[in-house]
Structures are given as C-alpha cells and as structure tokens.
Specification:
- The chain is α+β, with helices and mostly antiparallel strands and 65 residues long.
- The protein has one domain (2-62).
- Helices cover 29% and strands 25% of the residues.
- It is built from three helices and four strands; from the N terminus they run βββαβαα.
- It has helices at residues 30-34, 48-54, 56-62; strands at residues 10-14, 19-21, 27-29, 41-45.
- A hairpin with a 5-residue loop joins strand 2 and strand 3 (27-29).
- Helix 2 (48-54) crosses helix 3.
- The chain starts with 9 loop residues before the first strand and ends with a helix.
- It binds zinc ion.
- Zinc ion is lined by residues 14, 16-17, 19, 46-47, 49-50.
C-alpha cells in the first residue's frame, strides 16, 4: 500500500499536453520519460502551464511563490 504514496510510483501526467512531472519536479515530454522508466504508473493532472491556461482563477490561489 505504501507504493501509492511514493513519488517514484506515481507520475503526474498532464491531461492537456501530456507532459510528465519527474521525481525532480520537472515537466518533460512523455516520450522522453517513458523510454527511461517504463515501470512507473501515471496519474492524471495538469502541468503548471496548462493549469494557468485552463484555470486562471485557480492559479491565482496557489501561485504565491
Ligand atoms: Zn500541460
């Protein structure tokens, strides 16, 4: 059950542009990532660029760096 919560086991994939966030927090194209590590599971989400594009109101709430 612990696997579900580990960053290595679940990779967020952007449902809009299909980029994947790796374990360093960097968004990369899916082709580049899958060829390197095909064991990981994917969980759907949105990358920062698409979040900003699709949900501008939402981004305002958590983009406080
Ligand atoms: Zn995206």
């Amino acid at each position: 059950m612990d696997e579900v919560t580990t960053l290595q086991g679940m990779l967020p994939i952007c449902t809009n542009c299909k980029d994947i966030r790796d374990d360093e927090g960097l968004w990369k194209q899916i082709e580049a990532y899958i060829s390197k590590d095909s064991d990981a599971e994917l969980t759907q989400g949105l990358c920062p660029d698409c979040t900003r594009e699709l949900y501008p109101d939402l981004v305002e709430n958590f983009s406080q760096d």
